[in-house]
Design a protein that fits this description.
about 180 residues, about 40% helix, 6 helices, alpha/beta, binds flavin mononucleotide, Rossmann fold, six-stranded parallel beta sheet
């Protein structure tokens, strides 16, 4: 049996009933058995300021950077805020991007996202891909998991119930697992 692939999941929403965090939970449930998805908590990161950075990276930033470095890949679940990624997600990315021994560089990564709108975070996802160029993230291209009308695809407990979307999420995890495995060899 091949080694387990370890992925860090980052949700760009701090909302308790977040569709994006629920999407990460679905990804964990639907992942192949040889992929372990751990969901990071970015709620403790302060707002980025260079003044804070020069006093020393906050512990929450260092911990997140360590976890990303140790992982085989990343899964982002991004909300769409005003046609882009959320501020909290960009803030987390900005902090980690300032660490030495760049945790993002060369990391296989995948994107998913959910919104109440019809386009299912498409515009935010393409912004995230653009950000990933500078970070040297290795985003996989397909499948694109853009979950529109999210309120109809999750139940009241935040479980992803829409069968075709569950299939897409499972396929995304297989594609990320395969990319991470290629990255290791
Ligand atoms: C500041 C703000 C901006 C938003 N802009 C968009 C947008 O551009 N496109 C969209 O589809 N939804 C937009 N929404 C709606 C979010 O997609 C929706 O609130 C979604 O549920 C947020 O993700 P979450 O459930 O993971 O918290 C916006 C919401 C907020 C709070």
């Amino acid at each position: 049996m091949a080694d387990t692939i370890r992925i860090i999941g980052i949700s760009g929403s701090l909302r308790k009933a977040s569709f994006n965090t629920a999407l990460l939970r679905a990804a964990k449930e639907l992942a192949p058995p040889d992929l372990q998805l751990d969901i990071a908590d970015i709620s403790q990161l302060p707002l980025y300021s260079h003044d804070v950075q020069v006093q020393g990276f906050p512990e929450a930033v260092q911990n997140l950077g360590e976890r990303i470095r140790a992982a085989d890949g990343l899964l982002f679940a991004t909300p769409e805020y005003n046609y882009s990624v959320s501020g909290v997600l960009k803030n987390a990315i900005d902090w980690v991007s300032r660490l030495k021994d760049q945790p993002f560089a060369g990391k296989p990564a995948a994107i998913c996202g959910a919104s109440a709108g019809l386009l299912g975070t498409a515009r935010a996802q393409y912004h995230l891909r653009q950000i990933g160029v500078y970070l040297d993230l290795r985003f996989i291209n397909k499948p694109e998991v853009m979950v529109g009308t999210a309120q109809e695809r999750f139940d009241a407990e935040g479980k992803l119930t829409h069968a075709p979307t569950r299939k897409f999420v499972g396929d995304l995890m297989v594609a990320l697992r395969d990319a991470a495995r290629r990255g290791k060899s």
